[in-house]
Amino acid sequence: MKNEKQLLLSFAIPTYNFGQFISETVQSIENGAEILAPSQFEIVILDGGSKDNTDEIVNALAEQYQNIRYIKQPYRGGIDSDINTVAEITQGKYIWLFSADDLLEKGWDRCIIPFLEEGGELFLVPAILCDIQMLPRRPNPIFRSCEKNNPLKFYISQENDSLYNYLNQAATLEAFFGFMGAVVVKADVWRMLPPRTDYFGSCWAHCVRLMPLLFRQTKITYLNKFLIKKRGGNDSFMENGLIARIAISVDGWDRIINDFFFEASVQKILYNILRKDISILFFIYAKISARNDSEFRQLNSMARLLFTKRCPSSMTNMKYLFYLLTPRIRWMNTLAESVLPFLIRIRHKIKSAFL
Question: Which residues in 141-223 belong to E strands, given as ranges?
Answer without folding.
Answer: 152-156, 183-186, 218-222
